[in-house]
Amino acid sequence: MxxxxxxxxxxxxxxxEGLRHNFAKVRTGRANAHVLDDIKVDYYGQPTPITQxxxxxxxxxxxxxxEPWDKTALKAIEKAIESSDLGITPxxxxxxxxxxxxxxxxxxxxxxxxxxxxxxxxxKVAIRNARRDANNKAERDEDLSEDDVARVKxxxxxxxxxxxxxxxxxxxxxxxxxxEI
Length: 181
What we know:
2 domains; Topoisomerase I, Chain A, domain 4; two-stranded antiparallel sheet; alpha+beta; four-stranded antiparallel β-sheet
């Protein structure tokens, strides 16, 4: 593989990683600890991720349990979850916080599937941008002949096609998960 193929592949891997991160934030009817990844708690004046303050367990398919290591942070964690855009009301029992994940309605599942499609399209655009960048880099390389540039573009296009297929597969999998009752 050429250096341009490696360049494209490295950037496209980041696109897939970003897509997985976005998919993890999509709240299905199933409890997923990753929905808490972006929520920060005001802990002694510092915005701190919940995962650094507490253990997050999934005791059943539709329930998350957050158990802080420092029990004084319980109220702050509860407040951060309430003020987030999760749409879940936490219940605090003095030791841990329970987050019940209700099953989404048919309409809500369709909205979530659309959101996943949007994330998939954004990933494809990012992959195409990586392809363009790799091709531009090859075209600017004065050591490459026109034939070499054409070979590099063909190689980068094949890599792009493979990554678009990966996005489609991930999207299909996530959509099936979202639409599952």
